[in-house]
Design goal:
The complex is a heterodimer of chains A (185) and B (558). Chain A is built from four helices and nine strands; from the N terminus they run βαββαββαββαββ. Chain A is of the alpha+beta class and 185 residues long. In chain A, strands 5, 6, 7, 8 and 9 form a five-stranded antiparallel β-sheet that branches. In chain A, a hairpin with a 3-residue loop joins strand 6 and strand 7. Chain B has 558 residues and is α/β, with parallel strands linked by helices. Chain B has three domains: 160 residues, 3-Layer(aba) Sandwich (Rossmann fold); 166 residues, TPP-binding domain (Rossmann fold), CATH 3.40.50.1220; 170 residues, Rossmann fold (3-Layer(aba) Sandwich). Chain B contains 22 helices and 18 strands. In chain B, strands 2-1-3-4-6-5 form a six-stranded parallel β-sheet, sandwiched between helices. Chain B has a six-stranded parallel β-sheet with strand order 9-8-7-10-11-12, with helices on both faces. In chain B, helix 1 packs across helix 2. The chains are: A alpha+beta (185), B alpha/beta (558). The interface between A and B is large, with 36 and 42 residues.
């Protein structure tokens, strides 16, 4: 940059505007918040009144009992992520926000599938579960419950596989995510 | 000591001089503490009046205003002032009583979820869950309210906790790891901004309320006059740059001057300082300042690139950033001659489109003239508050504010009924200054009850009602955009404001003659104590010029 007053010219034409309005992809925001009452309401209320949609949201404790982690996913095609994070930062109880880069992040979701399965179908379902590294956690005469963890895409793929068998119920936790390497998320 | 006595100690430690409030069941302990608390309390007639008075106090001084209310309806009556303070970034701490903790969530008598109801419109809030939290919460509330981008902070205290005995130890520090406003501004960005300004052929400085909040008027003047930068201010920024000044273009936006709006339209570089590109400024966003690059200086990072993408964003407080910017700019030694063509263009607009109106030839008082008369009668030196509507815009246009914190109005929320209680608060803050309120005949009725507060406490505000018997701005829009079909805007001649004033124990006057208006106003100002003046003005006069909502600056009418 040089010293004040250096006359390296600057052309107004070359100035570029902030372009972070829409990124077009899913963003995983990992938010550390003070573990105080009402914090989740503040976050949810902020999203509601600014018209931002939350795709998934999880909240849980961290290694520090005074701090909780909120992991939420937002569609960057619909919302300006930069504005979303800046608004979140204005909440006094929000300590830190990371917009996790997909390639540097390990993200997992847990899902439970209750699928109708009589004797003939049970074997095939169990095989599919095994391919997806799922676990059968309960079996009754007419249904089977499979637990599966993985990325959102993997769970969606599993869902499409078991749906034809008769999907009775599905529950998903929403993603949690952690950054790779030594650095803190 | 009791927690409520600790509240009084905290207020004193924060330098609070006065609290505006109204007692009720859930804050009885607090009011008991006022008896020997050593804090001045002004009993208002409605909590909204108390909230706006606290805002007026804060806007006149830059100090934190304080308003108290009880639970339930007391707290909900504060909602409008809280929201108003949020929209206009006014530092106010609101302390509300709450029902006993054992009743919380049971729909107890006068229970309202105050924290929940106010959450979208506070900068922050504290729900007290243990009496020992109270002192720290109060100090944190003041810190948050006044620092960074100022705003309202609410502390809700259940009644049983407020009477509990606690060990009070003065709190000397606040620890808020998630709240660290950045004031300094990035030096590299500031240098970039200085270079951009030096390269610019058609610059405009667009300054907002953030300059007033940061007490950065001197820095703004220094920066603007480091070259011949044209300056315009938003409604909230008026006074930040002295109105009678060669580089002053007038207010911009919907009812701004053509010179200001056309300059924005043709600018190649706009330096926004403490302003937020509100829709009343930009009009049609896609056609706003189409040729310009933007430097955006704001203490709130979320404002930068919210509505208009910035080319050079600078997060920082106007005072710090402008002081550094002027050093960088002077060091470049830009040639002021490059702005001559730009100034001759601006002078052309000024000459062709001065603010003006067709004055009456008889006794009839045109509303614009009323403001000019007030300017003359006060020597331009009064603190002026207003309500919301035509009278507000005419005051902004015709009262040339020479200094900041003289113009106190509700911009963002546009709260009718703001002016009178805000004047009351400003007068309490500045007892030796002349405080006038320009009110509408519609607006003034929304908080007229505070005249009783003014009378009882001898708060000598001078209220000038611009009385046209209409909800004037709505009438204007119905005339212009709804085929002239008037729907529920005619207020008639009710009430009789002189009698109303007298009923409240306030001097009432009525002025109807233009020819004696200035001296009549001087007489009202010279009268001891609060005065309410009914000024009868032209009934159907429109506020011009005007950018119709959703249109571009080029499409100004009137």
């Amino acid at each position: 940059m040089g010293e004040p007053g250096t006359k390296d010219p600057l052309s107004l034409e070359e100035l570029e505007a902030a372009t972070n309005m829409r990124t077009g992809r899913k963003h995983v925001l990992s938010i550390l918040v003070e573990n105080k009452s009402g914090v989740l309401t503040r976050i949810a209320g902020l999203f509601a009144r600014r018209g931002f949609n939350i795709d998934t949201l999880t909240v849980g404790p961290t290694e520090d009992e005074q701090v909780s982690r909120v992991t939420l996913t937002v569609d960057g095609a619909l919302h300006p992520i930069d504005q979303v994070t800046k608004q979140l930062h204005k909440l006094v109880n929000v300590l830190k926000i990371r917009d996790l880069e997909p390639i540097d992040t390990v993200a997992r979701e847990l899902a439970l599938f209750k699928v109708s399965a009589d004797g003939t179908q049970r074997g095939e379902l169990m095989q599919i579960a095994e391919i997806f590294r799922g676990k059968v956690v309960d079996v009754t005469k007419r249904a089977i419950i499979i637990e599966i963890t993985g990325t959102t895409d993997k769970i969606a793929a599993f869902e499409s596989m078991v749906r034809p068998f008769g999907l009775i119920e599905m529950m998903r936790t929403g993603e949690i995510a952690i950054s790779r390497g030594r650095s803190e998320t | 000591m009791r927690a409520v006595d600790a509240v009084m100690e905290c207020l004193k430690a924060e330098g609070v001089e006065v609290v505006f409030g109204l007692p009720g069941g859930a804050n009885l302990p607090t009011y008991d503490a006022f008896v020997h608390g050593g804090i001045r309390h002004i009993l208002v007639r409605h909590e909204a009046g108390g909230g706006h008075a606290a805002e007026g106090y804060a806007k006149a001084t830059g100090k934190v205003g304080v308003a108290f209310a009880t639970s339930g309806p007391g707290a909900t009556n504060l909602l409008t002032p809280i929201c108003d303070a949020m929209m206009d970034s006014v530092p106010v701490v609101f302390i509300t009583g709450q029902v006993r903790t054992e009743l919380l969530g049971t729909d107890g008598f006068q229970e309202a979820d105050t924290i929940g109801i106010t959450m979208p419109v506070v900068k922050h809030s504290f729900m007290i869950q243990h009496p020992t939290e109270i002192p720290r919460a109060i100090h944190e509330a003041f810190h948050i309210a006044r620092s960074g981008r100022p705003g309202p902070v609410l502390v809700d205290i259940p009644m049983d906790l407020s009477r509990a005995e606690i060990e009070y130890e003065p709190v000397s520090d606040v620890h808020l790891p998630g709240y660290q406003p950045k004031l300094e501004g990035n030096q590299k960005q500031i240098r970039q901004a200085a270079k951009a300004l030096a390269s610019s052929q058609r610059p405009v400085i667009y300054a907002g309320g953030g300059v007033v909040n940061a007490n950065a008027s001197a820095e703004l003047i220094d920066f603007a006059t480091s070259d011949r930068f044209p300056v315009t201010c938003t409604l909230m920024g008026l006074g930040a740059f002295p109105a009678p000044h060669a580089q002053w273009l007038g207010m911009l936006g919907m009812h701004g001057t053509r010179a200001a709006n056309y300059a924005m339209d043709e600018a190649d570089l706009i330096c926004a300082v403490g302003a937020r590109f509100d829709d009343r400024i930009t009009g049609k966003l896609s056609e706003f300042a189409p040729r310009a690059k933007f430097i955006h200086i704001d203490v709130d990072p979320a404002e930068i690139s919210k509505n208009v993408p910035a080319h050079i964003p600078i997060v920082g407080d106007a005072k710090h950033v402008l002081a550094k910017l002027v050093v960088e700019y002077r060091a470049i030694g830009a040639d002021p001659a490059r702005l001559e063509a730009w100034w001759s263009r601006i002078e052309g607009w000024r000459a062709k489109y001065p603010l003006g109106y067709e004055d009456s030839s008889d006794a009839e008082i045109k509303p614009q003239y009323m403001i000019q008369a007030l300017y003359e009668a006060t020597g331009g030196e009064a603190i002026v508050t207003s309500d919301v509507g035509q009278h507000q815009m005419w005051t902004a246009q015709y009262y040339d504010f020479p200094a900041p914190r003289r113009w106190i109005n509700s911009g963002g929320l546009g709260t009718m009924g703001f002016g009178l209680p805000a004047a009351m608060g400003a007068q309490v803050a500045c007892p030796d200054q002349l405080v006038c309120c320009v009110a509408g005949d519609g607006s003034v009725q929304m908080n007229a009850q505070e005249l009783a507060t003014c009378a009882q406490n001898r708060i000598p505000i001078k209220v000038f009602i611009m009385n046209n018997g209409y909800l004037g701005m709505v009438r204007q829009w119905q005339e212009l955009f709804w085929d002239g079909k008037y729907s529920h805007v005619d207020m008639g001649e009710f009430p009789d404001f002189v009698k109303l004033a007298e009923a409240y124990g306030v001097t009432g006057m009525r002025f109807t003659d233009k020819r004696t208006l200035v001296q009549d106003m001087r007489r009202a100002i010279a009268t001891d104590g609060p005065v309410l003046v009914d000024v009868r003005v032209t009934r159907e006069e429109n506020t011009y010029p005007m950018i119709p909502a959703g249109h571009a600056a080029r499409e100004m009418v009137g």
